[in-house]
Write a structure and sequence with these properties.
Blueprint lengths: L5 H6 L8 E8 L4 E3 L14 E8 L7 E7 L7 E2 L8 E2 L2 H5 L5 E3 L9 E8 L5 E13 L6 E3 L6 E11 L4 E6 L4 E2 L5 E7 L5 E10 L4 E9 L4 E4 L4 E3 L15 H32 L13 H13 L11 H7 L1
């Protein structure tokens, strides 16, 4: 019986097991070839072939979805799943030489599937001549993790962000002082799928205040054997008002000691100033200084004239002696 549709023909394929398996890795956005090659050198008539590429539908048991196929009598391959339309193709010229490989363009995270290649010959009463299972693993590089923080709470809080990666990552926080891995119980990870089907990750680390903190965030992509560590080193020291808390100066008694120290310094400065002033006065007696005087020659001449006129001999004492004395 000749099947008239891919769906009807697939009913005949239930229970078939793959004879060989391969694994392929591809980056998101790239093109990939899933190999399905007849082991012996041979040439085939396309009118004698039924070729199917299909995947198992997740959560639907044994129900398969056709990616693309070639039926006897067709001059070109067709597509069964719209997700693969214009992306999956078979080469008719290659199939004549026994190469039934699937060419998949613009790989997406949803393409991470197990693909089955099935080849049947019409002339052999639809005998299966080739079956290959190819598992496609999809990967995408995460962005370089960026660490921000810490917050100004009672404990130090750091936040690490990395985006657009695949598959789901492993997240570690490390102590950059000795490169040791911090306890995973100190961190809280949030991993979500974005609109592109890639993963974004946000990890929050909370640790107690210490005088010195130097931490880094590491994003591990297991499929790519890749570890990305935050490029910047976060080092924080100081008082509670800045980043960390000083066990002495940050306490109330420490602040009081700082105030007393400032007052003591001011008192010493005042005492030195007073002592310097006292020594200066004791060694340098005060002098009366009335300032510079302007010479008045007319006054000197007048005084000499009065003295020559009103000498004691020219001013005998009499009833008006007080007035004459005043003139003299």
């Amino acid at each position: 019986m000749r099947p008239r549709s891919p769906g009807l023909f697939l009913l005949l394929l239930w229970g078939l097991q793959a004879e060989s398996q391969e694994e392929v890795r591809a980056m998101v956005g790239s093109d990939v070839q899933l190999r399905c090659i007849y082991p012996e050198k041979n040439s085939f008539d396309l009118n004698d072939l039924y070729v199917y590429w299909q995947i198992s539908m997740a959560g639907k048991g044994n129900v398969d979805s056709v990616v693309t196929y070639h039926l006897s009598g067709n001059s070109s391959a067709s597509h069964g799943d719209n997700h693969y339309k214009d992306r999956a193709r078979l080469s008719l010229d290659s199939m004549k030489q026994g190469d039934f490989s699937l060419h998949l363009r613009n790989v997406t995270p949803q393409d991470e599937q197990k693909f089955n290649c099935l080849v049947f010959r019409k002339s052999l009463e639809l005998k299966k001549i080739l079956e290959v299972a190819v598992t496609l693993h999809v990967a995408a590089n995460y962005s370089m993790p960026v660490v921000s923080g810490p917050s100004q709470d009672e404990e130090l809080t750091f936040t690490c962000t990395s985006t657009n990666g695949y598959p789901r990552p492993n997240v570690y926080w490390i102590n950059k002082t000795d490169n040791s891995v911090l306890d995973s119980a100190l961190q809280n990870n949030t991993v979500s799928l974005n609109a592109r089907g890639l993963y974004d990750v946000v990890s929050v680390l909370r640790i107690g205040r210490t005088p010195h903190v130097n931490v880094g965030c590491c994003i591990e992509n297991v499929l790519l054997h890749q570890n990305l560590t935050s490029g910047q080193t976060e080092t924080f020291t100081g008082t509670k008002d800045s980043i960390t808390e000083d066990p002495v100066d940050g306490s109330p008694s420490g602040k009081h000691q700082q105030v007393f120290s400032v007052l003591a310094v001011l008192a010493v400065i005042v005492l030195l100033a007073l002592a310097t002033g006292w020594l200066c006065r004791s060694r340098c007696p005060p002098k009366s200084y009335t300032g510079a005087q302007v010479a008045r020659p007319e006054l000197a001449l007048a005084a000499a004239w009065y003295r020559s006129r009103f000498t004691p001999e020219a001013c005998p004492r009499g009833p008006s002696w007080r007035m004459r004395d005043a003139a003299c």
